[in-house]
Amino acid sequence: MSGLDDQIQELEAELERTPYNKATSKHIGRLKAKIAKLKDEAVTRAMKSSSGAEGFSVKKSGDATVVLVGFPSVGKSTLLNKLTGTRSEVGAYAFTTLTVVPGSMDYKGAKIQILDIPGLIAGAAMGKGRGKEVIGVVRSADIIVVLLDVFNGAHAGVLLKELYDAGIRINKPKPDITIKRTSCGGVLLHAVGTLDLEIEEVRSILAENKITNADVLVRGGATQDDLIDAMIGNRVYIPAFIAVNKVDLVDAETQEEIRKVIVDEIGVEPLMISAHSGLHMDELKDEVYDKLGFMRVFLKPQNGVADLEEPLIIRTGSTVADICRKLHRDFVSRFRYARVWGRSVKHPGQRVGLPHKIRDSDILSIITEH
Question: Is it the case that residue 92 has pLDDT exceeding 80?
């Protein structure tokens, strides 16, 4: 691993020394692609070496899974206990949590699984500390809560870099880029909308992955980094927010200083909380719920009355097919049609098919073959 680390450091130093302009863009693209490929190889090795690690295989449950990510001893276990009532061991020393501890939070009708994982350290993505065991858990999350405390609030960038190096893209939509290998003809670039990338940059980046013949289609714009992510192909795009814990241990002036440092460094407003005293726990729950993009759908049996007391919780953008799969594994194969009452249709009781997208508070009746 040290050989890979040395290569990465050398390339990153060269990248830092190289000013970006039109003449150097091709070279910079190649350097970025090399670095990304080496980091991906290092993370892959670390992940493979962790296979079978005890306590790190957690079955996902509920409507969504939240992972608490932070340095050791920032209060992840206390926060899990406060939100879910789960008894994760709490101690004022590093690495209290040595396995993944799951808990369940019921909020606004949704059952949300929350995972407390061991604290990350610098270099975790490359396998240092417990990082190699927990990165796989983080990558499978539906949302990440990046938890800091008032004593290390200035180090948010370190945590975000570890997630980035592990192929986790925070609060970023997945770029619409298709790379289709071809047998000949070189690299052809097609764009829908304005694209700042030059064809030579694209060819230089793809060459690092031994792609010399391909049709590349980009919709809606893309950067060099976006193209590299699409080329490597294993990136995950996860919503997240930053919470700063233990604010009850410092005065208001110190809290404001920490808040300003994070805003200046990361460009996002952190949520200031105290898991111990319960300060701003409702705001944290709301943030989780909103970031997950939950919607409610009310189910109506055929020739029956809709259940308006217990909605089914689904994610924004869900289709009738998604709901069928959530309800029963055979519903899609047995599906005949559905009827919908609500904002997603033009008239009440409209007949729709599996691709129909549901909107919040719709009433849905699914008709299947017997």
Answer: no
